[in-house]
Design goal:
This protein has about 350 residues and is an alpha/beta fold. About 30% of the residues lie in helices and about 20% in strands.
């Protein structure tokens, strides 16, 4: 049994971490960190935890936390983990950071897209990008894991096999993605109010969304070339879910069976990536509340393009579930422990 501390436990991702870890047989949460609710009972913040969690919220003292737990999750805004982590802390505890502080290897790219100065760039090279299906062996040996973003997880896993096998022209890749409002976090913002979001769909962060360089970097590693994409996210009036629809020109003529064999090559043994049957399009409702990513594709012979599709829950595989999956790998637990979550419907 390992001891777990969470900094940022009262955000949506933090709350999802606690929901998942409450049923994890190998982990015990001993620190519920939250600057906004210090000394307040956690179950008063999230009533669904009444008589399940009896703890009170604590601060984000990473120095003290490092002496009390085996792993720290930081479910916080960009910049906080980078400002707190140091060599002494990393020598005593493993860290899984759900922010973007250690996802991008080029510190200049991070500072340009996020508009803040990185406080601990010396750890960027060491940090492992925690997309388990791609970097599993590196995650097992890591002491600092950069948990991928929600849009990026869906976008990368949807296109990864074809990028890796050189089937698509990466210079033509377009990613069109939609997310539920929980992806924007729990803090109050006018654009996320009910009347602003309900009965509406809108693009945002057009050409400027911060997940763009993360997708480009990881797919660039897969394709072994520099990648530049168009990525356009959209906000839709639902709580959870991400749907990514991606378009690229094929480098050569391929059949359905050939492309399906490529996806199966990479994902047939992956529990949490489900390659759907022919002509079945991924839908967010079939992955909600779970750690699954559903992917599929359609070849458009008329335009010589392929349409790749992926759906997942942004708070589970896109955040907390993936973080727990990383924790399981880091500590040698069964990778799916705590994540045997059957999708909810309706």
């Amino acid at each position: 049994m390992i001891k777990v501390g969470i900094i940022g436990s009262t955000g949506y991702a933090g709350g999802e971490l606690i929901r998942i870890l409450a049923a994890h047989k190998d982990a015990e949460i001993v620190w519920y960190g939250s600057r906004s609710y210090i000394d307040k009972k956690y179950a008063e913040v999230y009533q669904n935890m009444f008589q399940i969690v009896d703890a009170v919220c604590m601060d984000d003292n990473m120095e003290e936390l490092a002496d009390r737990v085996d792993v720290i999750f930081t479910a916080t805004p960009q910049g906080l983990c980078g400002s707190l982590v140091n060599e002494e802390i990393l020598s005593r505890v493993k860290i899984i950071d759900l922010s973007a502080d250690f996802r991008i290897k080029d510190v200049n790219v991070y500072e340009k897209w996020y508009g803040i100065k990185h406080q601990s760039p010396q750890f960027i090279e060491e940090a492992v990008y925690g997309l388990c299906e791609i970097n599993r062996e590196d995650v097992k040996k890591a002491r600092l894991v950069a948990n991928p973003g929600c849009y990026t997880t869906c976008s990368i896993l949807t296109a990864y096999p074809l990028a890796k096998e050189g089937i698509i022209d990466m210079s033509t890749l377009i990613v069109d993605a939609k997310s539920g409002t929980s992806g924007a976090g729990r803090s109050a913002k006018v654009p996320n109010l009910y009347c602003e979001v309900n009965e509406n769909i809108k693009a945002y962060g057009v050409t400027t969304h911060r997940h763009t360089p993360e997708i480009e970097e990881q797919l660039g590693y897969a394709a072994d070339e520099e990648v530049m994409i168009n990525f356009t996210p959209h906000l839709v009036p639902m709580n959870r879910g991400i749907l990514a629809t991606e378009y690229a020109t094929l480098k050569k003529e391929v059949t359905y069976e050939e492309v399906k064999a490529i996806y199966d090559k990479y994902y047939a043994d992956e529990k949490f990536v489900r390659v759907l049957d022919r002509d079945i399009c991924p839908e967010t409702k079939w992955v909600e509340g779970s750690n699954y990513v559903d992917v599929n594709f359609k070849i458009d012979e008329r335009t010589n393009r392929i349409i790749m599709m992926g759906a997942m829950d942004n708070l589970v595989k896109g955040a907390a579930g993936q973080a727990v999956q990383n924790m399981n790998l880091m500590f040698g637990f069964k990778e799916s422990e705590g994540l045997e979550l059957v999708p909810m419907f309706p």
